[in-house]
Amino acid sequence: MSNNNIALVVGASGITGSNLADLLVSNGWQTYGLSRNAGLNSNGVIPVAANLLDVASLQKGLDNIHPTHVFFTTWMRNDTEAENIRINSALVRNLLDVLSPNKSVKHVALVTGLKHYLGPFEAYAQAGTLPQTPVREEHPRLPLDNFYYAQEDEVYAAAKRDGFTWSIHRPHTVIGKAIGNAMNMGSTLAVYASICKQQNLPFVWPGSEAQWNGISDVTDARILAEQLLWAATTPAAQNEAFNIANGDVFRWNWLWYQIAQWFGIEAAGYQGTIHPLEETMKDYKDLWQNIATANGLQETDINRLTSAWHTDLDLGRPLEVMTDMSKSRKLGFTGYKSTRDTFFELFEQMRSERLIP
Predict the structure, then answer these.
(1) Strand pairing of 165-171 and 240-244?
(2) Do β-strands 30-35 and 69-72 pair in parallel, antiparallel, or remain unpaired?
(3) At 30, is the secondary structure helix, strand, or coil?
(4) Among 32, 117, 148, 192, the one annotated catalytic
């Protein structure tokens, strides 16, 4: 890749942003990683500390930085969808407004997700609004408020004003390592399984019958990074929205037992009712601290490693959910990953980095 490419990865400490930043650096891009704290400084990523809700902070942090490509991979969770819309649209708008005067930006990529098709947190996967699956990019917006739509609209408006191209990326559940992430199924299941092993408890399926028996897919953070890079450098992919998943499909009634076997624990499948993981794990904070201390782990705060509420949201859905990948495949994107390998490689990484025993 040309060294003339200058990337600004927004949310560079998260699951998506960190994997993307590593890929960009390995491809010869000058890569800036924007986050609220300036502590990020790994693998050649240049840290930028700025608050996306504070224009003055952005202006100071981005002074003399003129990115050609912006990759927006972050969001902030709020109590209502109205607040999600207000805050998360401002994150995008503020950044693009601050970058606008220099006219350096050639392409903006925005990462959203399947809530584009399934609805916002307040009305997630509810009857009457559910799409036909596999979900396809041409599916119309739901008649519901959704901060993903608001973020898209900010990108479209700024692109019209400033003349850059854009791409929208809609992963299914993103699996990868990140500390303190708000939507982190992989590490949530790793911590849950580790607790089950330490306490000699069964690894109980927390979700719905539809998810247990239905077909599903997920998105390895590295495959998402590959598609982001591909779309940013492929003219045919400009000004398009793309689904992105591993490329295989699975049923949880198979993968759940595979995960249990990896940890050496007994699995219990769907038995007629949902067992929310958030409820199961709410009293495990002190237990995890004890496990972490006893095993010399790097993170003693269970809330920094898990997001049971979001795992429940995914695994409790009343329908099977999978994504159609035809659009990017037809344009030449060939990224693929075995989902079992996605989970197992994450577990190996977490164990090697002393995040799980």
Answers:
(1) parallel
(2) unpaired
(3) strand
(4) 148
Whether 148 is catalytic: yes
Inter-CA distances, 235 with 99, 170, 229, Å: 22, 19, 12
Tell me the sheet residues that pair with 215.
251
Query: Is the model's pTM score more than 0.90?
Result: yes
State the catalytic residue, choosing from 115, 177, 197, 337: 115
- Residue linked to tokens 């949201």: 313
Neighbours of 147 (CB within 10 A): 26
Parse the chain into domains and list their residue ranges. Answer: 6-171, 176-217+249-321+337-353
The DSSP result for 276-340, as a single string, is -HHHHHTT-HHHHHHHHHHTT-S---GGGT--HHHHHHHHT-SS-B-B--HHHHHTT------HH
- Where b means 16+ CB within 10 Å and e means fewer, 201-219 reads eebbbbbbbbbbebebbbb
By C-alpha distance, which of 127, 124, 126 is closest to 146? 124
| Annotation: CATH topology of 6-171 | Rossmann fold (3.40.50)
Task: Tell the burial category of 338 from Cβ atoms under 10 Å away from its Cβ (0-12, 13-18, 19+).
Answer: middle
Going by C-alpha positions, the residue among 107, 27, 111 that lies closest to residue 67 is 107
For the chain, give the number of residues: 357
Q: Give 32-88 pLDDT, tens digit per residue.
A: 999 887 665 567 999 999 999 999 999 999 999 999 999 999 999 999 999 999 999
The question of whether 115 is a catalytic residue gets the answer yes
Within 10 angstroms of residue 236's Cβ, the number of other Cβ atoms is 10
Structural tokens at position 347: 């577990």
Interatomic CA distance for residues 295 and 356, integer angstroms: 8
Whether domain 176-217+249-321+337-353 has CATH 3.40.50.720: yes
Sign of dihedral through CA atoms 96, 98, 100, 105?
negative
pLDDT tens per residue, range 176-203:
987 777 678 999 999 999 999 999 999 9
In this prediction, the residues of the chain whose per-residue pLDDT falls under 70 are 1-3, 38-42, 127, 182
| Bond preceding residue 276 cis, omega within 30 of 0 | no
